[in-house]
Specification:
By secondary structure, the protein is mostly helical. It has a single domain, classed as Up-down Bundle (3 helical TM bundles of succinate and fumarate reductases). It contains 5 helices and no strands. Helix 2 runs antiparallel to helix 3, helix 2 crosses helix 4 and helix 4 packs antiparallel against helix 5.
Length: 137
Amino acid sequence: MAQAEHVARKTPAQRPLSPHLQIYGWTWTFVMSGFHRASGVALYFGLGLFALWLVLLSSSAECALFAYWFMGTPIGMLIVFGFTWGLMHHLIGGIRHFIWDAGCGFDPVMRRRMAMFTLVGSVTATILVWAFALLTR
């Protein structure tokens, strides 16, 4: 009898399965959560490139010249610009999550504003960092 009860409990529930991207609506918090995860992955690989750059700088004069040359090319600058934006976005997104961990900002309007600020703030911070870097060359 106990075996029959156990089998009866294993039948699938008559309700929908876990929602997925076709069910969820695209909200600001949903998109910024995805960007936060993607920026974390990009930073992982970006730090590997940064370590490679440091190794090239410390290897020889020819390697250092190659590293400086590559970072001055459009593709090198685009990589560094993307790394800078990923860093700023992940930083501001982390602050947003820290605020949530403190138990604040769960109001729907505040969640949306914080998510929008994450995008606007990260783009603004990236532009300010690059403007400062280019002006103080």
